[in-house]
Amino acid sequence: MGAMAPSWVEAKVMKPERWLHLLNLHTGESASVVYWVKGQYINEGLWAINHVLRDHHNGEVAEMDPKLFDLMYAVSANFGRRPMNIISAYRSPETNEMLRQHSEGVAKHSYHVKGQAIDLRVPGVPLRQLKKASLAQRAGGVGYYPSSDFIHLDTGPIRTW
Fold it and tell me: Residues 60, 122: contact at Cβ < 8 Å?
């Protein structure tokens, strides 16, 4: 069997390692984590990122989609790998339902519940630039929320709002 072609993000970021710099705005936790080295995801790195991105309402940690981390890594390349401020990542079904009761903008079948979505901003980077860099990846969903000062990224079908 021959080698598989690189994924959309691997073709854009062929580096020996990938890392993310994160700050969870709800918990105050920060992490600079290497999660991929020489073509392999690193379990310890994935676990550390999953922990920082947990549901801050109830502390539940879920296994997030590593392709979301790759998307975040590719987007961050446009801004010198600055730390990303995390507004929301994993949400338990209970948390998602609670948020739906208080906001019209929360989807019933949210990709956050599937561990495939994140809401973020990058300090010092205008939100329009972050949106543009995210759309340029041509992967997943990109939501633009200027009044709340964040963008949404997910690994679902390609779409924008």
Answer: no
In contact, 140 and 155? CB cutoff 8 Å: yes
Q: Rounded CA gap, 45 and 36, in Å?
A: 8
How far is it, in rounded angstroms, from Cα 43 to Cα 153? 22
Distance in angstroms (rounded) separating the CA atoms of residues 45 and 47: 5
68 close to 116: Cβ distance less than 8 angstroms: yes
Q: At residue 45, does pLDDT exceed 60? A: yes
Amino acid code (one letter) for 153: L
Q: In angstroms, rounded to a whole number, what is the distance separating the alpha carbons of residues 154 and 118? A: 6
The rounded distance, in Å, linking the Cα atoms of 87 and 48 is: 17
Q: How confident is the model at residue 138 (pLDDT cuts 50, 70, 90)?
A: very high
pLDDT at position 14, please?
58
Closest by Cα among 28, 30, 52, 50 to 41: 50
* 69 closest CA partner among 140, 148, 145: 140
Closest by CA position to 155, among listed 108, 116, 110, 106: 116
CB 117 within 8 A of CB 110: yes
Residue-range domains of the chain with CATH: 8-160 (3.30.1380.10)
